[in-house]
Specification:
The protein has one domain (9-107). Helices cover 19% and strands 41% of the residues. It contains two helices and five strands. The longest helix is centred in the C-terminal third of the chain and has 13 residues, at 84-96.
């Protein structure tokens, strides 16, 4: 059972590209050292054609492959306070292409 961390923040990340559209929930929190921001991406709704992706042999999955094949991926980055939305946007472009339009909004906990 996972415990909700007090420092967790939640975001909607919506993409639109020539590939289609997708909506994600992204959870962010600091690692134990406080140096790295952990990002968990959960793809919830999409109409992108991911048929070109398959499990690679002999190497780990890329972030793009993991998110597009399984609907879930994690990554981390050195903490730059206030840059969370920008980091999420960069990961979405990595997964869906540089031409993707990305909208990231924080989900209020109130």
């Amino acid at each position: 059972m996972r415990v909700l961390r007090a420092d967790a923040r939640f975001y909607w990340a919506e993409i639109a590209s020539r590939l289609g559209t997708a909506l994600h929930i992204v959870t962010t929190y600091l690692d134990r050292s406080g140096r790295y921001l952990i990002m968990e991406f959960h793809r919830k709704v999409w109409n992108t054609d991911d048929s070109s992706f398959s499990l690679p042999e002999g190497r780990p999955l890329t972030f793009q492959e993991e998110l597009r094949l399984f609907g879930y991926a994690e990554d981390f980055a050195e903490v730059v306070l206030g840059e969370e939305k920008k980091l999420i946007e960069l990961k979405m472009k990595e997964a869906y292409g540089e031409d993707a339009e990305v909208n990231v909004e924080e989900i209020s906990r109130a």
